[in-house]
Sequence to fold (298 residues):
Amino acid sequence: MNLKRLEHFCQLAQIGNFTRAANKVGIAQPALTISIQKLEQETGLKLINRAEKNTLLTAEGEVLFKLASQLLNQAQQVKLELEELKELERGTISFGVSAMMGSYYFPKVLTAFKQKYPKIKIHLVDQGTAALEKMLLNGDLDIALVRGDIENPQLRYTKLIHEEVIAGIATTNPLANQQTVSLAQFCQQPLVLFHEGYFLREVVSQYSTKNHLPLDIRMETNLIELQKSLVRNEVGITTCLSRILKDEAEMVSVPFEPKIEFILSLAWKKNHYLSKASKAFISYLTTTLDEMHINSSN
Fold:
């Protein structure tokens, strides 16, 4: 059975549209149509409901989609293992990390890893932890840095970073003189926050929804330096990690009461093939960040 045709069929089944699926696989729409027709001839099955607008796949098509997805995944794992047999230190890692973590924790670590393993390619994906977890479950990422306090049974985790979430406040703001701040107080201030899907935003959004507190959000941005500039100029206050404000003379870190913990773990899908390159990456990050006293044990 032609694997390329199966790949075309699976992309069509996932996307649900011939034109968009053709663009995804990089062929013309008529070529995709011919590929699917040849697959139907090869299998002797009717796979596509051409007269039914609401349902793309026939019952036989649904069964083949499930089986073909498993087969293509196995074929990809075989390909990866064969590539590693050629040279153990070669490979590509798809690594998901949020902008904040990528900017403040990983530049030196990733540079050092690349110096040690120059032939391993790292494809970085910047998203919030919620989106990264979904990408892991969909098989779009090998490894990602996600929330470690709520674990999904389909993923494996190794805890990596454990810190405290604090309120970032301009020194000129009256709240800057307090020893602690409650989420109730925080939610009643003008705010500068991350976009939805990021932990430092979710903790505020969840509290405000639960307690029916409307938020006065003056700006949403994932650009940390812009966030800090807006806070310094009293556009609003924000949530962040204390190390981000380490050298900020015009801002202070005020802890929340009760304390809000920030736990991040490296995660990967349980049934997803973990390459030697990915294993080396996990081992290196875990060891190096622990030595840098970022880990919770320090």
